[in-house]
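Design a sequence for this backbone.
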């Protein structure tokens, strides 16, 4: 039976990307060696890193003056590296959920942190709109897609100070106006590659402004100067990222990824809104195209496990919601075909008709 994998992360990748990675693990490009056995400074690996960097720049139309880094660690490492490198006096944070809160907690170790707004009052089910950003803040940090709560900033917001964004779970799912940002970062395991890798797009001229000493491994300037090879980066995930970046380009780039994401999301939200057994948890105007959260409607709560089983029997797997929200979460990253969203919507319809 065909399986549709709705895992939130690590998550589904295009089948051909998985196959290309598997083949490189066995024998990379006819070398007779596994890619895992090749030096990160070898003649074979350098073109992989160069092409991955160039493709991320090309696909997101990254302007001159920005650098792309691929580093170990996850998004959580950047929660600490970002303030280490960018927070001199004061930083502004928009608190839209668990990840934003974690980023903010780390920043407090480095300076004054202003929470410009929070949606904690309504269980992070919406994105605050009216807030004032202090003009003297070094940056405004936002989480572009709230993987757990299923809300998304689908546009690059205007801010009086440069933006810094955690784009872990919606990178490459839409065009981004990179000039608004000093830095865009994330873990790879949602929409780019397998786990173990993080990506970073950083404005070079925005670095070097903090007074504190920065340990080399946490200093973005050191990584830029060494072209992501200051220490050994996760070589296999970088190769997977390259295969995936090529795939995104072949499919039509981020404009096409956004069109598909919207199409999948509409299929699912339409079903959630019309099926009396289910209801969405995020405010309609802030609903994410990537993580579609829903719960059993009041009165039907006891059917939750039955629905999960019903869906799994039809090949629709990994839809359990995050423990803080409960219910269900259908994560639909770039690799999810429209038929996956339709399969889940059909499960919801058929389940309603079956009871
Ligand atoms: C998954 C996720 C993280 C955590 O990433 P790690 O790589 O595990 O550190 C941070 N932010 C967002 C938005 C995420 O979705």
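Sequence:
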């Amino acid at each position: 039976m065909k399986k549709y994998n709705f895992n939130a992360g690590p998550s589904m990748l295009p089948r051909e990307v998985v196959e290309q990675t598997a083949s490189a693990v066995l024998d990379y490009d006819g070398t007779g060696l596994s890619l895992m056995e090749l030096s990160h400074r070898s003649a074979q690996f350098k073109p992989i890193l160069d092409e991955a960097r160039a493709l991320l720049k090309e696909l997101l139309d990254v302007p001159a003056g920005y650098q792309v880094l691929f580093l170990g660690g996850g998004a959580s490492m950047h929660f600490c590296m970002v303030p280490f490198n960018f927070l001199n006096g004061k930083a502004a944070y928009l608190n839209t959920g668990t990840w934003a809160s974690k980023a903010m907690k780390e920043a407090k170790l480095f300076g004054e942190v202003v929470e410009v707004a929070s949606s904690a009052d309504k269980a992070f089910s919406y994105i605050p709109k009216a807030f004032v950003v202090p003009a003297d803040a070094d940056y405004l940090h936002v989480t572009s897609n709230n993987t757990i709560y299923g809300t998304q900033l689908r546009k690059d917001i205007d801010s009086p100070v440069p933006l810094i964004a955690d784009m872990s779970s919606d990178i490459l799912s839409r065009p981004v106006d990179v000039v608004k940002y000093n830095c865009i970062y994330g873990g790879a395991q949602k929409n780019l590659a397998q786990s173990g890798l993080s990506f970073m797009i950083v404005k070079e001229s925005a670095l070097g402004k903090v007074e504190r000493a920065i340990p080399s491994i946490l200093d973005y300037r050191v990584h830029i100067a060494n072209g992501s090879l200051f220490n050994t980066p996760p070589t296999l995930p970088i190769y997977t990222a390259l295969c995936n970046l090529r795939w995104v380009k072949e499919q039509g780039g981020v404009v096409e990824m956004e069109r598909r994401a919207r199409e999948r999301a509409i299929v699912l939200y339409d079903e959630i809104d019309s099926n009396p057994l289910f209801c969405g948890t995020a405010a309609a105007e802030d609903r994410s195209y990537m993580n579609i959260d829903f719960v059993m409607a009041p009165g039907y709560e006891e059917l939750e496990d039955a629905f999960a089983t019903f869906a799994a029997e039809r090949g629709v797997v990994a839809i359990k919601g995050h423990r803080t929200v409960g219910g269900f979460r259908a994560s639909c990253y770039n690799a999810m075909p429209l038929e996956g969203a339709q399969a889940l919507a059909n499960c919801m319809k058929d389940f309603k008709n079956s009871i």
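Residues 9, 74-76, 99, 143, 147, 166, 168-169, 187, 190 surround pyridoxal-5'-phosphate (CB under 6 Å).
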